[in-house]
Amino acid sequence: MKLRLGAVALTGALALTGCGSDDNSRLPGALDFSLDHLRCGPGGTLLASGSSAQANAMEVWVNTYQTNCAGSQVNYKATGSGAGVQEFLQGNTAFAGSDTPLSEAEIEESRAVCRDGGRAVNLPMVAGPIAVGYNLPGVDDLVLDAETLALVFDSRITRWNDPAIQRLNPDTELPDRPITPFHRSDGSGTTENFTGFLHAAAPDAWPHEPDKAWRGRGGQAADGSSGLVGQVQQSPGSIAYFELSYAHRNDIATARLDTGAGRPVAATVEHAERAVAEARVVGRGGDLALELDYTATADDAYPIVLVTYEIVCDRGNEPESLALTRAFLRFTASDEGQRALAEIDYAPIADRIIDQVRERVDALA
Predict the structure, then answer these.
(1) CATH 3.50.50.60 fits 129-275, yes or no
(2) What segment(s) does the record annotate as region Disordered (predicted)?
């Protein structure tokens, strides 16, 4: 079956935007891939919410599934990881998207929602680089490192021509302009991953523990990745962090990262894949939570990455939504679902991990 996504992108964008707060629907119009088969579940409506980092991936997945599976509707609200996890733990959604795995305490809490002795499990479904986007007229190529980023976002480097930035960009004329760093105001897995990188790669410069809530000093806040994008676009001298897909869809320049490798590394899908490929499964008992190495220094490995998990009960799911949940997640983890990601600036999950995800999805009860 031939499916041209460009023809249906507007419909999916409206469906996602209508029930979410993160509108980033400027997907490429030429997305086009064939589906030989798609195992549809029963008709009905599936409610889910969470990570805005995966909003563009979810838009493609929802469009594809709904186009091929008549009578099925998937409503995903990109409310942010923190809000999505909370809604799931309150029993309001079939699954949640989160850019960090559930804590042990949250897994224990999930036992009240997952019936028949079940509990929530973390299923890694999509990965990608967190880009550092900036608006600095006249500067099209910018190199930063972990320590400098930490000091900028902690409001201890405050001007673009600071000697620390100039040393990393010796051939660039940096303006004597104030730096305006923006961070997320909502509970965000992107924030937790970004600050996890700062804390691991520059612990002296970033003493704050990684958290979904922003712990740095100063700066300005905006809601959601799209809120940060809007602020960077309209604020010369600004800098923020968001998923690469947001930067590309909105034509925002992104910094290269000096990791100590042979050359600075750009935020690309390929470079993120090199970093994510080294992740270790640290979850137990069917849980597939991963541990990332934020201090990777291999050539062409971009270490500011995140993995988005779909969080679902391993058993004890609502009977009315179980079959549709299983069918939709089976598609997102399929070869076709994963192959679509690279075309919209996401990284597919490594084969050795996604094979385990498929086994867990098939076993949902």
Answers:
(1) no
(2) 210-230
CA dist 353 → 95, 183, 327 (Å): 20, 31, 19
At 334, list the tokens: 């399929």
Q: Which residues contact 234 (CB under 8 A, 6 or more apart)?
A: none
Annotated domain spans of the chain: 2-127+280-287+307-362, 129-275
Q: Give the span between the Cα atoms of 225 and 131, in whole angstroms.
A: 11
Quote the tokens at residue 265: 């590394």
Q: How many Å apart are CA 307 and CA 280, to the nearest integer?
A: 12
pTM, two decimals, is 0.80
Contact yes or no for 176/159 (Cβ under 8 A)? yes
Name residue, tokens 């042979």: 262
Could you give phi then psi for residue 62, rounded to 5 degrees?
-65, -45
**SS3 per residue for 29-78:** CCCEEECCCCCCCCCEEEEEEECCCCHHHHHHHHHHHHHHCCCEEEEEEC
Quick: pLDDT tens for 306-334: 999 999 999 999 999 999 999 999 999 99
Intrachain domains 2-127+280-287+307-362 and 129-275 with the same fold: yes
Residue 27: per-residue pLDDT = 53
| Dihedral, CA of residue 343, residue 349, residue 350 and residue 355, to nearest 10 | -120
Please measure the distance between the N-terminal and C-terminal CA atoms of the chain and give it in whole angstroms: 30
